[in-house]
Specification:
The protein is α/β, with parallel strands linked by helices. The chain has 2 domains: 136 residues, Rossmann fold (3-Layer(aba) Sandwich), CATH 3.40.50; 61 residues, Putative phosphatase, domain 2 (DNA polymerase, domain 1, Orthogonal Bundle). Helix content is 41%, strand content 17%. It is built from 9 helices and 8 strands. The strands form 2 sheets. A 6-stranded parallel sheet has the order 5-4-1-6-7-8, sandwiched between helices. Helix 6 links the parallel strand 4 and strand 5. The longest helix is centred in the N-terminal third of the chain and has 14 residues. It is globular and about 60 Å long. It starts with 6 loop residues before the first strand and ends with a helix.
């Protein structure tokens, strides 16, 4: 029996891609520009999830450096090295294609800047699998506001009962809850669920696939 199609909205960093080392390298190069010592990858990874401005701000806490000045340094560095070490998590490429071929509607809703998001999705050859890609700068508000999720639902013409948000951070789970849709938390990413209670929890992308 054919399964009913679902709208599955994915986060990007920590959900579809492991970008921790490239993000950390760009942040540390920005810090070096300002004469600051490097931070370890785990520390920087813990700052990911609320958009690049907060990432950079957190990486500069305790200093008086202007965040806008730091962003002007960090952004081109990251863009030039955006897929040096970034990879898809195991099973993502084939899994997304299988979901699409099964009739599910796929989308991305990420707080990552739109240009970086597009470059990565195109590099890995998966951009065409998504009916909608919403990202920072392309959409006026970021997760955990529910607006991205609601916009994707409207674009896809799918109701809340048939919509899922898949992500690795409380921002994804909260945006899903506030949009009235189900959520799936992946434990292999960078974030934490916080006080949110996901509908399901998975330890790998293979487990994600098994839910649909």
């Amino acid at each position: 029996m054919k399964k009913k199609p679902k709208l599955i909205i994915f986060d990007l960093d920590g959900t579809l891609i492991d970008s921790a080392r490239d993000l950390a390298a760009a942040v540390n190069e920005m810090r070096r520009h300002f004469g600051l010592p490097p931070l370890d990858v785990a520390t920087i990874t813990g700052y990911v999830g609320n958009g690049v401005r907060l990432l950079v701000s957190r990486a500069l806490q305790g200093t008086t450096i202007n965040v806008d000045d730091a962003l002007r340094i960090q952004a081109p560095i990251y863009r030039a090295h955006i897929v040096d070490e970034t990879t898809l998590y195991p099973g993502v490429a084939e899994g997304l294609r299988r979901l699409r071929d099964q009739g599910h509607i796929l989308a991305v809703a990420t707080n990552k800047p739109a240009e970086a998001c597009d470059l990565i999705l195109e590099h890995f050859g998966i951009r065409n699998l998504f009916v909608s890609v919403l990202a920072g700068g392309r959409f006026p508000v970021l997760k955990p506001e529910p607006d991205m999720i609601l916009d994707v639902m409207a674009t896809a013409g799918m109701p809340a009962d048939d919509t899922w948000v898949v992500g690795d951070n409380y921002t994804d789970l909260e945006s899903a809850r506030r949009a009235g849709v189900r959520s799936l938390f992946v434990t292999y990413g960078y974030g934490e669920p916080g006080n949110e209670k996901p509908t399901l929890t998975c330890r790998s992308f293979g487990e994600v696939m098994d839910q649909f």
